[in-house]
Every structure is written in C-alpha cells, then in structure tokens.
Specification:
Number of helices: 5
Helix content: over 70%
Structural class: mainly alpha
Number of strands: 2
Largest sheet: 2 strands, antiparallel
CATH topology: de novo design (two linked rop proteins)
Strand order of the largest sheet: 1-2
Shape: elongated
Strand content: under 5%
Distance between the termini: 14 Å
Order of helices and strands: HHEEHHH
Radius of gyration: 18 Å
Length: 160
C-alpha cells in the first residue's frame, strides 16, 4: 500500500480515517434502526411510539409520509443500507476511493431531502416527529463526517 503521508503523521491520518469510517458505520446502524422501525410501523399499521410527544403519529399519517405509494421511511432505510454497503465495500477494497465520493453525494441528497421534510413538518403539517428529526440529524452528521473523509483525509490508494 502506498500512503500519501509518511511516518507518524501518515499513521495518525490512517487511524483517524479508520475511526471516521467506524463512526459512520455506527451512524448507519443507528439510521437503519430508526428507518427500520418507522418502516415496520408503517407496514404493520401500528402506532408510532413517541414517548410523551404526540407529533409522530400526525407526521406518519400525513400525505407526505409516502411518495408515489412508497413510504419515505422505507426510502430512508434503503439509503442507510446502501451507505453501509459503501463503507463495507471500501473496507474490503481500499483502492475504491470512489466510495467516499458516492457516500458523500448520497448522504448529501439524503440530508437535503430531510431538510425538505423537516420544513413540511414545521410549516405544513405543524407537528414534529422525533424519529424523523433523529434521522435527519444522523444524516447531517454523516454528511459532515463523510465530507471530511473525502476532502481532507489522505487518499489511501494506488489507483482509481
């Protein structure tokens, strides 16, 4: 393997990159749990558990909870699974630097769509879903961390 940086600086950057990858994997796992729960609730026709806060059910039953019949939560679940797959692919093949770019692009699209959904919650539905806000927060943190990995971390690869 040919690292961009040599010596102790290169080792630090390598370990920081690995740490960020593991943090992103944990965030993907959290996103899968959140989106998976909301998908389950949708398909099982269950009530969304939202502690002492009642806004989740209103959001889940709104016309904005599906797009062309597909639950938004299911699309979110698919996004988190694809993002996890990109991280696993990169772990198996360090030459696949393109995975960082793809991860950032998909996470960015997800956070933009989450911002739109949050706008709908605040100004159209007039109710906030804590599950949705947690998913949006997870995506925002993932976008920021993946941007750091893509733009500022050394490129540990020898080819495309």
């Amino acid at each position: 393997m040919d690292f961009t940086l040599r010596g102790s600086v290169g080792k630090w950057c390598r370990s920081s990159d690995d740490l960020l990858r593991w943090i992103l994997m944990a965030l993907c796992g959290a996103g899968i749990v959140v989106a998976g729960y909301l998908s389950y609730v949708h398909f099982a026709n269950k009530v969304v558990y939202c502690a002492n806060y009642s806004g989740c059910e209103l959001v889940a039953l709104s016309e904005y909870s599906t797009v062309h019949g597909i639950p938004v939560a299911l699309a979110g679940l698919a996004l988190y699974v694809v993002l996890m797959g990109l991280l696993i692919w990169e772990m198996k093949n360090l030459r696949a630097f393109w995975t960082r770019q793809a991860f950032f692009a998909l996470a960015f699209v997800g956070v933009v769509y989450s911002a739109y959904l949050t706008y709908l919650e605040l100004f159209v539905i007039l109710s906030i879903c804590l599950w949705c806000v947690s998913s949006a927060t997870i995506l925002l943190v993932m976008t920021l961390l993946s941007g750091v990995r893509w733009l500022w971390m050394p490129k540990f690869r020898t080819g495309g």
